[in-house]
């Protein structure tokens, strides 16, 4: 990797944006640390580990921890690809503008359509999981009514904070980062050192989860333990126009998100496994929510209550970051005239400099989905979450594929973050990893209920078909004249600006 001097290091951020065809209309108040905090709280290892700890152990046993390493390595290659793309295109919206500039309008429209729904569903799922911590903190029963009320409360509080502007978002993201680090790394290390009840060799012991079958099947079935964790780093790029020197800082923030998130998740997952007083009960599937008992027995009542405060803070920050990322994607989509009510969605508050209408949508639709989950059958939130993960991976790989296509056509990324000659190899590895991940996510389960077994693919199919029909009938791509498929031309243009800009400056 190299830091080749380019437009973003020689031209101002506004000038770089002008070369790409946009005006600089946001406050660039987000630092590298704040940008990393945004991505990290979106990725949220605390949320990921807590949500799937019991499921992972019951499916793949303690060795399921290795999925954190496998997926982390795979997603790191994806973050490198994204880093080169955002370094050339440091513009709001992430997935949508990247796919558009790398391929075209219709391709980008479908990628963004899938991603928008996946993000909105993810907001719903994270708020729902967070409501459990909030209920425990205040000693409320975990009824469907309490879950509904607290989920909506988390969504509205996050919306109110987002309304106040980028500085609040950055501040809460930093607080959330601190809460995450305390909740996963500090607690994980404490459990590993002082509360260890299992040997480290347990991470190589399947504890019989495979029954009479092959353990490989059981291990593959536990892949969601890692796949659910490692996305969110792209949110660093969703707010590119609110970051100072984004072409240099955002690639670094993305890589930091993966690395720190992976280490945090390993400490948390490993600490819970080694501190579990009855690990066999969890592996057998008889304890579906074991973490509260582990914390209660290891930290005591006061320590467990403090952890709940930390966890609620982390969940709120995660919802806040998700809403912010989704609203910027909607704004970017609307700014190019690609969605209904695009003028309304593209409005930016003159006071807070945030897309307030897009934020309202990013909150109101999750509230509606929460109501659907409330009146629906038990366990619906798990199925909703599974769809969200697959949808996000599909959107990610649309950018990875488009990037590889441009490289094969001769594109040499022109941002200050560059992989050099290794770019095409890393890009190909990222694509192969992503295809494998999507297969694992979409692979049907074997519960005997056809709808439940295929629900993930059914959900994705509904979104894709609905989006495809709208694209064919309404032709939103014809209503936009924003640039598309110009990666090679823009790279040449940026290099031309660099050569005529004089000596590089910091």
TrEMBL record:
Transmembrane segments: 32-53, 65-86, 107-126, 146-163, 175-193, 213-231, 252-275, 306-333, 354-374, 380-404, 416-442, 454-473
Source organism, top-level taxon: Bacteria
Alphabetical list of Gene3D superfamilies matching this protein: Amino acid/polyamine transporter I
Compartments where found: Membrane
Keywords, ordered alphabetically: Membrane, Transmembrane, Transmembrane helix, Transport
Pfam families linked to this entry: AA_permease_2
Protein's membrane topology: Multi-pass membrane protein
GO cellular-component term (any): membrane
GO molecular function: transmembrane transporter activity
Protein name according to UniProt: Amino acid transporter
The organism of origin for this protein: Leifsonia aquatica (Corynebacterium aquaticum)
Lineage: Bacteria, Bacillati, Actinomycetota, Actinomycetes, Micrococcales
């Amino acid at each position: 990797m190299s830091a080749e001097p380019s437009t973003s290091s020689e031209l101002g951020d506004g000038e770089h944006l002008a070369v790409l065809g946009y005006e600089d209309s946001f406050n660039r108040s987000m630092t590298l640390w704040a940008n990393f905090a945004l991505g990290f709280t979106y990725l949220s290892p605390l949320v990921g580990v807590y949500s799937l700890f019991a499921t992972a152990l019951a499916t793949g046993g303690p060795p399921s921890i290795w999925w954190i390493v496998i997926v982390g390595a795979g997603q790191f290659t994806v973050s490198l690809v994204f880093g080169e793309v955002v370094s050339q295109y440091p513009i709001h919206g992430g997935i949508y503008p990247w796919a558009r500039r790398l391929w075209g309008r219709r391709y980008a429209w479908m990628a963004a359509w899938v991603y928008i729904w996946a993000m909105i569903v993810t907001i719903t799922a994270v708020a729902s999981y967070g409501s459990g911590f909030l209920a425990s903190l205040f000693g409320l029963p975990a009824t469907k009514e309490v879950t509904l009320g607290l989920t909506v409360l988390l969504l509205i509080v996050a919306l109110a904070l987002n309304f106040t502007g980028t500085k609040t978002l950055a501040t809460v993201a930093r607080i959330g980062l601190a809460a995450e680090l305390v909740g996963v790394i500090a607690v994980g290390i404490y459990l590993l050192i002082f509360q260890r009840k299992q040997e480290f060799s347990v991470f190589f012991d399947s504890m019989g989860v495979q029954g009479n079958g092959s353990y490989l099947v059981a291990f593959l079935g536990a892949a969601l333990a890692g796949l659910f964790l490692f996305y969110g780093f792209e949110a660093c790029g969703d707010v590119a126009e609110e970051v100072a020197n984004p072409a240099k800082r955002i690639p670094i923030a993305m890589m930091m998100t993966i690395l720190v998130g992976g280490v945090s998740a390993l400490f948390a997952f490993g600490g819970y496994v080694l501190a579990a007083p009855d690990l066999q009960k969890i592996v057998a599937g008889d304890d579906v929510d074991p973490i509260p008992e582990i914390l209660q027995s290891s930290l005591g009542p006061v320590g467990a209550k403090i952890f709940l405060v930390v966890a609620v803070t982390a969940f709120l920050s995660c919802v806040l970051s998700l809403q912010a990322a989704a609203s910027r994607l909607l704004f970017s989509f609307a700014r190019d005239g690609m969605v209904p009510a695009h003028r309304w969605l593209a409005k930016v508050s003159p006071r807070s400099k945030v897309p307030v209408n897009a934020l309202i949508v990013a909150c109101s639709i999750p509230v509606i989905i929460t109501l659907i989950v409330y009146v629906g059958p038990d366990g619906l939130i798990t199925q909703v979450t599974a769809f969200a993960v697959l949808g996000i991976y599909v959107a990610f790989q649309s950018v990875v594929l488009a990037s590889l296509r441009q490289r094969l056509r001769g594109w040499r990324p022109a941002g200050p973050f560059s992989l050099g000659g290794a770019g095409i190899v890393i890009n190909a590895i990222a694509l192969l990893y992503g295809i494998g991940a999507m297969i694992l996510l979409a692979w049907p389960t074997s519960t005997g209920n056809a709808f439940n077994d295929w629900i993930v693919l059914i959900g994705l199919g509904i979104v894709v078909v609905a989006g495809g029909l709208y694209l064919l009938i309404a032709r939103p791509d014809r209503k936009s004249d924003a640039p598309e498929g110009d990666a090679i031309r823009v790279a040449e243009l940026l290099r031309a600006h660099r050569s005529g800009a004089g000596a590089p400056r910091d």
